[in-house]
Amino acid sequence: MLKVWGRRNSINVQKVMWAVGELGLAHEHIDAGGSFGGLDTDEFGTMNPNRRVPVIDDDGIVVWESHAIVRYLAAKYGAGALWPEDAGARARSDLWTDWVLADLQPAFIGLFWNLYRTPEEQRNWNLIRQGIARSAILFQLLDRHLSEHAFIAGDVLTMGDIPAGTQLYRYFELEIDRPSLPNVEAWYARLQEREPYRTHVMVSFEDLKGRRTF
Ligand SMILES: N[C@@H](CCC(=O)N[C@@H](CS)C(=O)NCC(=O)O)C(=O)O
């Protein structure tokens, strides 16, 4: 049976769990990382020498890196749904996935760490302001793309929605200035209609407040 390792309040684990939920896959979830620990064992290091979550073991196929896992699960179990059959739609899914890894997530997670995960007295407000401004530019770029599409790759949800869509809960929950993002907000509302999104992504991150330790 598919096994998934990773704490549920990790944004990267949430991508995988959301995909598992969309695909309706039977699985075993094992809490790991953060206050659960377990990443420094020999057994874990054999699965993921980078010692991070998420990791999956699908009947002997071990995959780490959240986007690689989402692609693997979509390709194996979601043909014609999360995994677009059309090469153009698949390329759009891929490019927005890579954009999240290269641009959106470093900017937004940097902001999240500097603002939310740093104790108040240690916060660097220059870095926070830069993170807010950079995130705003990137979400506006995404907003322009979504003005012509209901979902990232077209009219239906695909694997391409998962990396960027996972960032939204925290972005809209943080008490920060945000630009007008009507199309991102409409997409966020569409995602919230989905039970796997509500269950696996809209997860409290309260216990990360002021904690820079993991
Ligand atoms: N690029 C990796 C990043 C993995 C990563 O940094 N995971 C964090 C959680 S979001 C982690 O394992 N941190 C150590 C811990 O939770 O103890 C991915 O997308 O899977």
Brief rundown of the structure:
With 214 residues, the protein is an alpha+beta fold. The protein is 52% helix and 7% strand. A four-stranded mixed β-sheet has the order 2-1-3-4, covered by helices on one side.
How would you portray this structure in words?
The protein is of the alpha+beta class. It folds into two domains: 2-77, 3-Layer(aba) Sandwich (Glutaredoxin), CATH 3.40.30.10; 87-201, Glutathione S-transferase Yfyf (Class Pi), Chain A, domain 2 (Up-down Bundle). 52% of the residues lie in helices and 7% in strands. The chain has eight helices and four strands; from the N terminus they run E-H-E-H-E-E-H-H-H-H-H-H. The chain has helices spanning 11-23, 42-47, 66-77, 87-115, 125-146, 161-173, 182-192, 195-200; strands spanning 2-5, 27-30, 55-58, 61-64. Strands 2-1-3-4 form a four-stranded mixed sheet, covered by helices on one side. Helix 1 packs parallel to helix 3, helix 4 (87-115) runs antiparallel to helix 5 and helix 5 (125-146) packs across helix 7. The longest helix has 29 residues, at 87-115. The protein is globular, with a radius of gyration of 17 Å. It starts with a strand and ends in a 14-residue tail after the last helix. The structure holds glutathione.
